[in-house]
Amino acid sequence: MPLLEVQNLQVQFQTPEQTVYAVSDLSFTLDRNETVGLVGESGSGKSATALALMGLPPAKITGGSIRFDGEELVGKPAEFLQKLRGQKMAMIFQDPFSSLDPTMSIGAQLIEAIRIHLPLKGKAAYAYALELLKNVHMPTPEQKMRQFPHELSGGQRQRVLIAMAFACKPLLLIADEPTTALDVTVQAQILDRTAVLQRQHSSGLLLITHDLGVVAETCHRTLVMYAGQLMEAGTTEQIFRNPLHPYTQGLLAATIPLEKPEARRQPLPTIPGQPPSLTQKFTGCPFFPRCRARIPNLCDKEKVPLYSLPSGRQVRCLLYADQRSGTSSDVSSV
């Protein structure tokens, strides 16, 4: 049984003027000790998915199922979800500065989180908070316990959030752009400590990022989202060696392979156009206006299902409809 099983998830945001259809018909699984990467352009629904999984506003689940450790979460009261968060599910948010209280010291914030979820008080809570900072290799942790968020660097603030997230040894960790705005050396340190703690606690990790290099190095499987829909899914090796969906191909083409330094002298390929507005539902493929392999009067007219291929991969593209039965026509270069 998967640790996390999402089926046909629908997520909306409601504003006074309009409805935003942030996630449409999303399905995937995540196991213990597994790292799954969720990638896509800004506005593709990645963070909305994370908020929905955690039961946090303003994401509103309007359909589908979220089963965590065998238990259905959709429809559960807020009190149940609040107790679950922190104890069995935890999240590292994009911006560590805005996620920490500027009026409280680092130690006070860690101790507050510990006291809410664990039977520790006084010196025991302080000692455990200090241990958490040491576990994420925080320099001078005793001093950091007395300092405030503005006195720490971005990488140090992110270490605090990781320490807080792992305080209760959660089964599921969601990391939403955990290395944004950090230099590559600090990125590597943060990802390394997250991976070590994940292995120690046998947690499942959903890593949301724009950095395809990070995904290639850390994730077992990769999910590619666009306009709130899952466009392609497979092992990370499958996705990077042979991307199937034209959108995935475009994303990977816009990166510079380290083994090809001569490519740095060439203009980077881009995907023409802009992602569509999510204030409308799509009758066909949302990627149709930008797709170089589009089929007029077909891709824009029919709702495109998520095809499961014999290789175990999934792809939402009509080019692969004939491969459901195991035919092997090669369209990866389309």
How many DSSP H or I helices?
11
Helix percentage range: 25-40%
> Structural class from helices and strands?
alpha/beta
The name of the CATH architecture is 3-Layer(aba) Sandwich
User: How many separate structural domains?
Assistant: 1
Q: Are there runs of 5+ residues with pLDDT below 50, and where?
A: 325-334
Q: Can you write the helix and strand succession as a string?
A: EEEHEEHEHHHHHEHEHEEHHEE
Question: What is the average per-residue confidence, as pLDDT, rounded to a whole number?
Answer: 90
* CATH topology type: Rossmann fold
Global outline:
globular
Percent of sequence in beta strands: 15-25%
| Spatial sequence of strands, sheet with the most strands | 6-7-8-3-9-10-12-11
- CATH class (first level) name: Alpha Beta
Tell me the total number of β-strands.
12
Radius of gyration: 21 Å
CATH homology-level superfamily: P-loop containing nucleotide triphosphate hydrolases
GO molecular function: ATP binding; ATP hydrolysis activity
Keywords: ATP-binding, Cell membrane, Membrane, Nucleotide-binding, Transport
Organism: Chthonomonas calidirosea (strain DSM 23976 / ICMP 18418 / T49)
Membrane topology: Peripheral membrane protein
